[in-house]
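May I ask for a single protein's sequence together with how it folds?
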Amino acid sequence: MPSSQPNLSAVYGLSRFCGFYFLTGLIARIKNDNRPYWEITIQDAFDSVAIYSSAIEPIIKQLNPFMPLQVECVRRQHNGKYYFLADMINPVIDIPLNRRHADLIPYSAAINSDDVSHV
């Protein structure tokens, strides 16, 4: 069972995590075998984490900067380096009321980053 809604600064030691985070980056990349994939940066008040997916074409037109996403990710290893592969990425209009809190505010969206450093 994945860890549910951890702060992104805590996910590096987890084998899986899921939760609501904000989209702050989206880059198309090409693997060595010429297959495309996406590097998606998600953010909360504590950290930014890159997650990877090769299957976001059905939702790509729905994605906008700083929009909330519901994600479920698994940690993988390649050439001795860890990365997170997205099992599920779902754009959401609104974060469920029981999940809303200041820890979710992406620190790069704050007018003053000190506003979210003490959440």
User: Anything to note?
Assistant: The mean pLDDT is 89.
